[in-house]
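User: Fold both of these, please.

Assistant: Here is the first one.
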Amino acid sequence: MNIKTPMYTLTKLLFNSLFIGDGISVDRIENRIDQLYELAVRNKVDLLFLKTLDKIHGLDDRYRKRLVERENQRFEMIITANKIIGILEDLGYNASTFKSFTPFPIVPNDIDVIILDPITGEEFNHVVKRLIENYNYMVFDKIPYAVTLHDSRGGPHLDPRFKDPYDIDLYVEIAANNLIYLDKRCIEGKTRIVRINGYDIKTLDPMYELVVQCIHSIIPEQIYLLYHFLTITSLIRLEGVKGLNEIADHLNIARELSLCLSITSHILETLTNEHGYRSTYAVEFFDKGYYKVKIPELFLILVARSLRDTMFRNTLLDQLRSMMNSENLAHVIKNLIERRIRETY
């Protein structure tokens, strides 16, 4: 593997900036800024890259404008999150964001919110109706266990194919389509309040945020990005790893968590020891700009989880049964193909 790939340079730059403070030699990136920025966008860390670049190198007018745009989008998303959590609490529900905010600045695709209380489908429909009628939200997508809302304070949603800073995925289960990949009862009471740009945001405790990030990367998305590496290392730095084995055993997620943390540790090893052993995880990550979960890895995870986790097994069967409908099957096939060929999500 060529250790000086663009992905290696980007990873080293952002990792050093977050954890070491010495950045990276400016001449290493002087003629590669456009290339590194495109890679940062694909890896969902473009805001962090622009802020880091501004600090060590400065920004031209084009990138300065982009930095302001992304910071404004992030600020609107913080308001979006604060507002929906407050409304749900006023309606009597315990809710939290998840996989939306990290210890470093990012702009997520949208805000993910989970209602942690037990709630029936009928009651959830009633909540959504109240959000539409009383709080000026619009619904533009529905999937099992979730709806996608648009906060109309930002005006109408112009194109449902693209998310904007006023969009929220509101979940009643932590799920992808029919598959519940983490039982929300296990994270009830595992929340905290963080202060971001002057707003209180309820999110998961660091260890549980780490767990959700890992499982979401491995099972639904099937891809591991620089975003995941920096998020996981940041959360471990905040909380350490004490009790993680017990959490993994309790949630029946040992195999998928092990894969995610193995990828993380091998990338870290390569960053800190350029002449050391380079695993297939690190080679693919630095050469391609991501690590794609392999079909055998995913298959073994699904089988192992199904044997130990009744809810996971039952909802996986629900997903398989839904594929007996030809339209659903076509949608799933299209989705799987996209996941196998994409470089981001």
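And the second sequence with its predicted structure:
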Amino acid sequence: MGDRDLQNNLMESLRQEFGADDRVIKWLEKVLDCDYSSARRKYICETKLSIANLEGIARKAPHLLNQGLQDLLPRNAMLVHYSSFRDRREINLYLRSIIKRFEQAYRQKAELKYVARDLPLFYFLSNRHLADFKFSLWAHQLPGRGMIHIGDETFALCLEVFRLYKAIDSIEVWNQHVLLNQFNMIRWYCSYQKIDVNFTNSLYRAMHLQLEEYKKWAKKGVKEGGGNLDLLFTDFMTMNNGGMLETGRSKVLMSAVSNVNFITFNGGLPCENFTNDFELHCSYATSVSRSNVLARDRIFNQILQDLKGHGA
């Protein structure tokens, strides 16, 4: 693999990231600290990227290097993007990264394949109480300082992620017992007086309302924002929570590792393995979108009944 092959692949990654050529050139102009003409020559591979140029691109957008290096690396070697957070600033950075990725996915008409062993991330972004609880849990604040109450800026970012999610087509495989882990966590933190009964009840009410929305979307096969939804349920799950955005040109896998750690892969073997496992689960699961009315009613009614039993 020659230098120009690497540079061509990197520029193709930037085209996929930003779309229009002019946007890519202006991005390079800023990142490489050069004039527009110099950035354009590097973009069309008329001049070579220097080591310093590559370092600048790596610092600003490390996930793009996978595309450039994919022909050089072995199939089981890859670059990953690792996300975790402990405070509001890091939460906001994480949410902005999702927004950027979802905006690109929407432009490219990507499809989201999502596995919900536990309640999916997007579910918690639809309601302020749910977001407070989830981010407090993820940031490891509940055992010590207690509940994080997110500010208006953070909640606005949550709602923007949720809006984009509703606009993107998705195939989602949910564990039928998707609430069990939530019940156990909430009960445990309530017993240690990290959250009170009133807040617990507000969580259950919010869960109930959002489940009713998902049931409506499943019936129509379309989410409120216009994205198609194929929702499937299974009574066993061997995969972790996570999702893969896929277009004809690229695959981006976002997978949870431990409680609050998220790893993003651009293509490669992890995406292939996720696809194989996802298709296996789909073959076993029951689709309740636009079909299987009895199964849809039975599963949602059972989940809602479980919530009612916990005070919702």
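The chain is about 55% helix and 15% strand.
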